[in-house]
Amino acid sequence: MTFKSAVDTIVANLAHYALFPPEQGRITLPLGHRKRATVGRTVDGFGKPLPALLGALEAVGVATVAKPQQAGYATTIAPTAAFAAEVGSRGISSPDFERRTDLPAIVLTRKDQWGRREHVPIPQTDDAASKAAQVRKFNERLALADVAYVGNQPTDTFDRTLVRRFTLPPGARSPRLAYSGRLFGGFWQQMRRTERRHIRVEGHRIGELDYGQMFPRLAYAKVGAVPPEGSPYDLPGTEEFTDEQRRAVKSGFNAFLFKATTMRKWHPDIEQGLPTGWTVGRFKQAMLRKHPLLAPVLNCGIGYELMYRESEILCRVLERTLLVDCAVLPIHDAVLSPITRTRAIAEIMMEEAERVAGARIKAALKPSV
Fold it and tell me: Record's superkingdom (predicted)?
């Protein structure tokens, strides 16, 4: 049965891929012999026979298999053109796929000494049970919601299941659900903003409401202070930065919140995004000139804690919208709401931010694209 389950699961994923190609391009399928592996969302790993099975699927023209070229990366698979054409000719559609209902509502992971993400058993506590029950309630509501997509891209609107993902930061000694905790899943999270405008909720166009400068404002709430006026990312010396360089400033700012030790060099993506000469030291000096009150929380690794607060705020927002019988679609620190309800939902978002973080963080409607 294990072998048949492996074939059924992989072929079904390949067929779904053929109809609804993911933006990331291929399906990740680690070949390690650990008990858990990732096939889309978390499912049981198939163990040692898996490489032989993939070889067989490749041999009969069902899948293409790409093995990693360096350590730390996983094998990926994709349907062949012939298999995709066969799936298309059969008239298969989203309702034909059986979706697992026994997947975990919450997941806890950490990185091992080689930087590979591994699963950690969920603690058997009342808090964990409550968090899992909350996510299941969200999923039950979303399954019944009037959500549609009227664009031209192949989109599986039945893909609505959320999972709350917690991460243990480096050095964490106990498996607590107190770090990260963002909600992942749902077809809308994988979409470009230009495609999200074609989503309809309750028959209405949607508006995207998000919190402005969430992490810096949560950091100020952490130290019991009020941030200065204007964008927290407008650091001294960045006045002439391009939009791309400003995005790198935001990434650099967050890096100082997540790094738990002294930071000596940038991640390559940040280094490439900033102008020449903007070293870690120069950037930190500019940050402290703009935000001297944040000095106690830089390089302390509080980013995971701040992300947890962000996720708690969003979960409370979803709870509130359930009470007013309004479906909203979460995207980390934002929600997609029926355009007719954005004013009421924005007020709920600001109220819940104040309850969780002690700061009234503004939620605003993003310009339509």
Answer: Bacteria
**Closest Cα to residue 214, out of 271, 164, 257?**
257
| Position with higher pLDDT, 277 vs 76 | 277
Q: Using only C-alpha atoms, what is the Rg of the chain?
A: 22
Phi and psi angles of residue 127, each rounded to the nearest 5 degrees, phi first: -65, -45
Q: What is the DSSP string of 229-250?
A: SS-TT--TT-TT--HHHHHHHH
Structure tokens at 117: 């993400």
Confidence of residue 98 (pLDDT cuts 50, 70, 90): confident
> For residue 39, what are its two tokens?
């096939």
> Which residue(s) pair with 336 in the sheet?
208, 329
Q: Give the global pTM.
A: 0.86
Q: What phi, psi does 90 have (nearest 5°)?
A: -90, 0
Mean local confidence (pLDDT), 29-47: 50
Residues 6+ apart with CB under 8 A from 122: 104, 106, 107, 108, 128, 132, 175, 177
214-222 and 303-323 helices, crossing angle to 10° = 110
CA-to-CA separations, 312 to 119, 253, 307, in angstroms, rounded: 21, 22, 9
